[in-house]
Each structure stands twice: as C-alpha cells, then as structure tokens.
Amino acid sequence: METILQKWWDTVHQSTPNLKVFLVGSHVSWMHEHTLDGHGPLQNRRTRQIDIAPLDCVHAADFYPHFSAVDKVRAFAIWGGLPRHLRDVDPSLDLWENVRQTLLDPDGRLFVEPDWLRFTDLRADRVYTSLVRVIAMGQHTPGDIAKAVGRNSATDISAQLGAWFRNMATVQAWLKRHPHRNGALIFDVRRANCHHIPRRKMNHAQLGRLVDIGVVARVNALTSRSDTRSPAHYYISDPFLAFWYRFIDSYRNMIRRGQADAALSRIQQEIDLFISQYVFEGVCRDWLWRAVGRAQLPIDQDIAEIGSWWGGPKDKQDEIDVVALSIQREAVIVGECKWTNAPMDMRDLGGLRHGLAMAQKDLNPILNPWRLCFSRGGFHPDLVEEAAVAENRIVLIDPDYLYRR
Q1: Residue-range definition of the domain harbouring residue 342
Q2: What is the pTM of this model?
Q3: Do 323 and 346 fall within a single domain?
Q4: Exposure of 199 by Cβ count < 10 A (0-12 exposed, 13-18 middle, 19+ buried)?
Q5: pLDDT digits (tens, 9 = 90+) for 69-78
Q6: Can you say how many angstroms the Cα of residue 347 is from the centroid of all Cα atoms in its chain?
Q7: Burial class (CB in 10 A: 0-12, 13-18, 19+), 400
Q8: Residues 8 and 66 reside in one and the same domain
C-alpha cells in the first residue's frame, strides 16, 4: 500500500490540491517504519502527523464512573487508557468481576491480545518480547534488563550507534584494513579505534526500537542542569501491557487449566504493590500537569517540566517521586507518593525534605518549594495540622482529590 501512495504522491496529487488523504493506523511499529522513519517509502511526503495518545486516568474513568476513586486508580493500572480495552469494561459490574470476565477468560480477546497487537513485525526476534516481559517484572536499568534476557551487558541491547560512528574517517580506514570481517562493527569514540564483535553476540538497538514505537518509555532523572544527564530507566508505557505481562502472562497456564479463581486471588494480593511501584507516581505527575493547567495550585511561576529525581552516593541513594521545574530551571514543586493503607505522616514529609537536600545541586530548588503529599491511606492528624499553615506550602491529595474536575 505504501508503494501505491508513494506513486500517487509523486504523479497525481499535484493535480488534485483540494484532496486530503488521511492514513490512520493503530499498528504503531508499521506506521513509524513506513510513514515516519527516515528510510520509509513515504518519508518527506506527509504534511502533518497526529499522535493520538491514550486517555489519562481521569478520562479513562468515564468508562467506569461508579467505581470508587481507589478502584479507578486500580482500573487504570489494569486496562490503561486505550479506549478499545476500556470498552470491554462493564460499568454495572465491580472491578474484580470485570477482571474475571475480560482478562481471565482463556477465550477472551484481552487474554491473548498482547501476543499480536503491537509486536506483529517484531515476532521474528523473540528478544523484543523478552525485553517487555522483564521490564514489566521489575527490571528497569539497562544492565539489569540485559542480564535478565541473557545478554552480556547493557551495550548489547541499548547501544547508541550514532555516537559510535561520529568519526567516519576512522571507521572507513578500519574497514579498509579489515574488509572481510563478517560481523558487527563497534567504534569507540573516546579511544578513536574499532574492534570487531561476531554477529551472533551482537543485538543492537532492541530497546531503542521499543522506545521509538512507544512500547517502552526511556526516563531520565529530572535535573536543572542541561549539561548533566542521569542513567536512564526503562518502563512499559502502557499500564495494560505492563499489567498483562506482570500478571496474565505469569498465570496463563493456571488460567487455562481452570484455576481463574486462584489467579484472581493472587492478582488481588499483589495489585496494590504493582500500583505503588509502577503506576501511582505517573498518575500523580499527570494530575500535577492538569492542576497547573487549570491554575488549581497557587503558584506564580510557569512550569516547564515535570518528572522525578533519583541519585546520591551509591550507599545513600534517594529519590523524589514528583518534581516540577520552572522556566528558570528551579525546582518549585516536589512531591511524595504513597499507595498503602497506612496514612502519610510527618516521617514521609521528613523523607521528602531529605531527598530535596540530596538533590540540591541537581534541582536548584527555590527557598520554600511547594510540597505535595499523595496518599491512598489518608493523612495523620499531625500532617493535616502542618498543612493547615499556609506558609508551609503543603498540599494533601487523596484519590478522591485526584479525580476532581
């Protein structure tokens, strides 16, 4: 089809200036390869591209309006924000009965969908599925991911070929000296030399490919300094895909053998830990973007970027779940996210203060940044009293507050 469109563009479209052609597709990797990629047949022939993002947690909740706020967060962690998945949710049933009917039925669409939805043209190399699976199971650094899929090092899966080939004269000279080497070439920019690695041991750019098509998100710690970049962490972009590989794939044989009740019990026991580790912080950062856009927070500075921070000495690593930088690249908002039954208390506020002290050089915070406390289990009276003093700049946010419009 792309060849037909290419021929039409080159020969016919100039004579039909009022005709507009829309090429729409949900097969992400195909759309990238054939319409957006620099080597695709339709390169430089598009006049505009529209990336339709999944729904956020607030708009996804329109598909299950009667759920409690806590179950709305759980539902978002399970079905994500793709409307086609959300349409399968029956709002007249509770959360767990919906899980049973949509995900624990071996004949159901969502029981098998990730096997073909996004990976159709990647199935020839099973490393892609392995990468998604190990990231969903909790491996997020390139080194840990590489070990989990049986690779020698992070270089095998996340090599940046562009950096290696900056000095093409050196590369060409090496090729002249070694014209018959059957394998992959690595160029070391720092040492300006080349060495050879057999093709069977090389596996470049799988992580990069998954990032390019939106299956995996590459995340760096937020910093106020443009010359500093932290090591990347990798996460599954779609909550549904992460949930599917974490739970449905793990319990697939159990479910197929009629043990759906046992699988459901395990999911109920583990879902809140999954949300705490991989979903809730993103929900809170999305809320902050909406709150800033609607002027829900009394902040007199424009926000340029929202993310998270982690760092510090190896034996004293710390993190800040939510960070907002102003246009001046100063941290004006920091936040702590806690998805447990226990109420958030002054110790959590102290932990946020400690993290901010460790991040001074990276975040360049203002003298008295706003502190946001996101908690599923509510707040201890001492923290409520502290937040009641306006000068303390503390905002307490529970799940009900997240879904206010």
Answers
A1: 280-402
A2: 0.81
A3: yes
A4: exposed
A5: 999 999 999 9
A6: 29
A7: exposed
A8: no
